[in-house]
Amino acid sequence: MSTFARNILGGGLKSDTLPADLSFEGETVLITGATSGLGLEATVHYLQHGASVTITARTAAKGEQAKLDIESRTGKLVDVMILDMDTFEGVKTFVNTFKKENRHFDIILLNCGVQEFVWKPSPEGWFANIQVNVLSTTLLGLLLIQWMRSKPEQSHLLFVGSGSHWENDLSKWPRKDIITFWSKEENFMSGRDAYGISKLMLHYCVNAMDKIASAGGKISPIVNTVCPGIVQTGIARSFGGGVWGMQCVAKAYMALALKAVPADVGARSLVVAAKTTPEQHGTFRRPYLTDDEYEKVSAPFFKTEEAKEIQAEVWKEVVEILAAADPEVSKIVL
Ligand SMILES: NC(=O)c1ccc[n+]([C@@H]2O[C@H](COP(=O)([O-])OP(=O)(O)OC[C@H]3O[C@@H](n4cnc5c(N)ncnc54)[C@H](OP(=O)(O)O)[C@@H]3O)[C@@H](O)[C@H]2O)c1
Question: Which Gene3D superfamilies match (predicted)?
Answer without folding.
Answer: NAD(P)-binding Rossmann-like Domain
